[in-house]
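Deliverable D2.4 — example input (structure tokens):
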């Protein structure tokens, strides 16, 4: 069961990294996110940072007991920072005009 979880995590982090590289280099965003992303290169940089941070957090986090306490924290901060950059690369939400009371 552990090997299944590790392989799933490796595939997910790798897929996120590939999407980030494609968005950064070729300005290509996956069709499901294409409508929301206004700046594909910025979104790609955020996706790459998230993939690296998540990889550090998941795969080097268990080494915290061996004296590497800073790696999981650094990975988590990089992961969250990448998500913030991805959020900033998206279009702002629209406000729905309200009807005036009659």
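Example output (designed residues):
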């Amino acid at each position: 069961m552990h090997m299944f979880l590790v392989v799933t995590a490796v595939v997910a982090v790798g897929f996120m990294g590939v999407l980030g590289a494609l968005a950064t280099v070729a300005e290509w965003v996956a069709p499901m996110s294409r409508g929301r992303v206004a700046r594909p290169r910025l979104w790609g940089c955020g996706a790459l940072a998230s993939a690296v941070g998540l990889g550090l957090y998941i795969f080097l986090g268990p080494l915290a007991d061996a004296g590497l306490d800073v790696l999981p924290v650094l990975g988590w901060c990089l992961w969250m920072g990448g998500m913030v950059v991805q959020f900033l690369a998206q279009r702002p939400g629209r406000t729905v005009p309200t009807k005036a009371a009659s």
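The CA atoms of residues 38 and 90 lie 5 Å apart.
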